[in-house]
Amino acid sequence: MSKITVLYHSGYGHTQRMAQSVADGAGGNLLAIDADGNLPEGGWEQLAEADTIIMGSPTYMGSVSWQFKKFADASSKAWFTLAWKDKLFAGFTNSASMNGDKGSTLNYMFTLAMQHGGVWVGLGMPPANTKAADRNDLNYLGSSSGAIAQSPSDVGAADMLPGDLETARLFGARVAQTAARFKA
Ligand SMILES: Cc1cc2nc3c(=O)[nH]c(=O)nc-3n(C[C@H](O)[C@H](O)[C@H](O)COP(=O)(O)O)c2cc1C
Predict the structure, then answer these.
(1) Which of 17, 79, 127, 129 is deepest in the core (most CB within 10 A)?
(2) Has UniProt tagged this entry with the keyword Cell inner membrane (predicted)?
(3) Domain 4-183: what homologous superfamily?
(4) Are 25 and 176 in contact (CB under 8 A)?
């Protein structure tokens, strides 16, 4: 079985809830970047042992949070020796606006994964974009490069939309299925 780590930062709990859904679908372990942008004890070792790293961050000012970026810069230590080469990577984000520039956040995560010599797994799910589509349909937000969720700015993590969370769960499952095939 592949070792999957869901690495994420969350300022106010929304991305954490999304990370839990991704981990549920993937059968992976959560690894949180803290409010100071640091990993807990053993975090770097967990990443070194993982063969799949799914990255999550809220979208803040059109990109990853500074805490996530601090992690990314610190990962240059692994980059120097291409220690994460050929791991699978995937990404997810959450923000307040329907668009909110979430694509920029996923693009940044993709670039980070490519710098590490990784292999990227996208969402692999059609968008729900017909007139009859419902906000809680799978992939209503119409992403392709990763999972995205939208949480209105006055809504707490407990009230995140079930369709976005189910999309995140199925995204986790897809990454796990891809990891199993990649390993075979
Ligand atoms: C500093 C800051 C910047 C933000 N920038 C954006 C943004 O660019 N686009 C957007 O749609 N929402 C933006 N938001 C809203 C957050 O993405 C949203 O509240 C999200 O649910 C927070 O996730 P979290 O609870 O995991 O921190 C911003 C929030 C903060 C605090």
Answers:
(1) 17
(2) no
(3) Flavodoxin domain (3.40.50.360)
(4) yes
pTM of the complete model beyond 0.95: yes
Q: How far is the CA of 62 from the centre of ligand 1 (A)?
A: 9
Q: Which two tokens stand for residue 60?
A: 């803040």
Q: Is 67 in the pocket of ligand 1 (CB under 6 A)?
A: no
CB of 15 sitting under 6 A from ligand 1: yes
Domain ranges of the chain: 4-183
Cα separations (Å) of 62 from 1, 52, 104? 36, 25, 6
d(CA 100, CA 86): 31
Helix 162-183 / helix 14-26 crossing angle, nearest 10 deg: 40
- What pLDDT digit, counting tens, does each position of 79-106 carry? 999 999 999 999 999 999 999 999 999 9
Closest atom of ligand 1 to 153 CA is 19
pLDDT at 183: 85
CB 5 within 8 A of CB 46: yes
CA–CA gap between residue 116 and residue 181 (Å, rounded): 21
The ipTM assigned to this model is: 0.99
Report whether pLDDT(1) > 70: no
Ligand 1 centroid–CA 96 distance in Å is 6
Token pair in block for residue 167: 């999309």
